[in-house]
């Protein structure tokens, strides 16, 4: 006499779904999709800035050492911060509510003042100068 194994339909559905998800993840990995974006050159920063804010043309750029973000200023004095969001970069023009602080001589933490965008940490050489620029946005001296 043969014993048959009864498998519930829900278990079969779960197993099938798991196999499908793992197969899709494998395909995405093989195609090198979804990797962490990097800003390795100033041209990468300019391109990401143009995608974030139409027509933004930086006159000053500072890239994170690992390429995980950047801070930029244009000729009008507007300051733009870029940070990774998925596999692209999200950018915000900083307003008077933005604040910056130094966590070390090269570690700049920027609070955008927007809950949805949050904070950005950058490891840059000129962190102190950029902290002054960001913190001056709320002062009456800023033009």
Assigned CATH architecture of the domain at 42-136: Roll
The helix content is: 25-40%
Low-confidence stretches are none
Mean pLDDT: 90
Number of continuous helical runs: 3
**What percent of residues are in strands?**
25-35%
Please give a quick description of this structure:
Helix content is 30%, strand content 28%.
SSE inventory with pairings:
Layout: H1 9-30, H2 42-52, E1 58-63, E2 70-74, E3 79-85, E4 88-93, E5 99-104, E6 107-111, E7 119-123, H3 127-136
Antiparallel strand pairs: 1-2, 2-3, 3-4, 5-6, 6-7
Describe this structure in words.
It contains 3 helices and 7 strands. The protein is of the alpha+beta class. It has a domain at 42-136: PH-domain like. Strands 1-2-3-4 form a 4-stranded antiparallel β-sheet, with helices on both faces. A 3-stranded antiparallel β-sheet has the order 5-6-7, covered by helices on one side. The longest helix has 22 residues, at 9-30.
Descriptive key words:
alpha+beta, PH-domain like, 3 helices
